[in-house]
Amino acid sequence: MKKITRQIVFLLLLAALLVTARASAAIHANNSTAGVEIGPKINTQTIVFDKGDSDAYGIVESMRMDTLLIGGQFFTLTSTTTFKDLLKSGDFVKVHYSLNPDGSYTIVEIELWNAAQVSIGSSN
């Protein structure tokens, strides 16, 4: 029963993300930020990794049911991913991730973040 409840909560959260993403896309259709500079040397095609803390920073480019594209890098979502804020495409975020054996990334926790607080010294 606990597993089913978690799955239902996960599906509801993802459904809310999709509704938000579609509404945001409709509102911002003419205000695309693709390749636009956000702060000093940080743009929508940039992702900054802090590998010491397994954190990454970037702009949410797209959202799907089980993945987010952030700064050109795909991240997997799971039923255990913690969303600290409601997100939409175009948001600058901080992602705490785990590195999978195949080299892909899974989001452990994600939250809105201030781009001005990010050092770009470790950018990929």
Question: How would you describe this structure to a colleague?
Answer:
- There is one protein chain.
- The chain has 124 residues and is α+β, with helices and mostly antiparallel strands.
- Helix content is 21%, strand content 35%.
- It contains one helix and nine strands; from the N terminus they run αβββββββββ.
- The chain has a five-stranded mixed β-barrel. A two-stranded antiparallel ribbon has the order 1-2.
- β3 and β4 form a beta hairpin.
- It is globular.
Can you tag this structure with a few keywords?
124 residues, alpha+beta, 5-stranded mixed β-barrel, two-stranded antiparallel sheet, 9 strands, 35% strand, globular
What amount of the residues lies in strands? 35-45%
What's the pLDDT, averaged over the residues? 75
Helix fraction?
Answer: 10-25%
Radius of gyration: 15 Å
Segments where pLDDT lies below 50 for 5+ residues?
Answer: 21-40
Find the count of extended strands (DSSP E, 2+ residues).
9
Strand and helix layout:
Layout: H1 2-27, E1 37-39, E2 42-43, E3 47-50, E4 55-63, E5 67-70, E6 73-76, E7 82-83, E8 92-99, E9 105-112
Parallel strand pairs: 6-9, 7-9
Antiparallel strand pairs: 1-2, 3-4, 4-5, 4-8, 5-6, 8-9
Write a concise synopsis of the structure shown.
The protein is an alpha+beta fold and 124 residues long. The chain contains 1 helix and 9 strands.
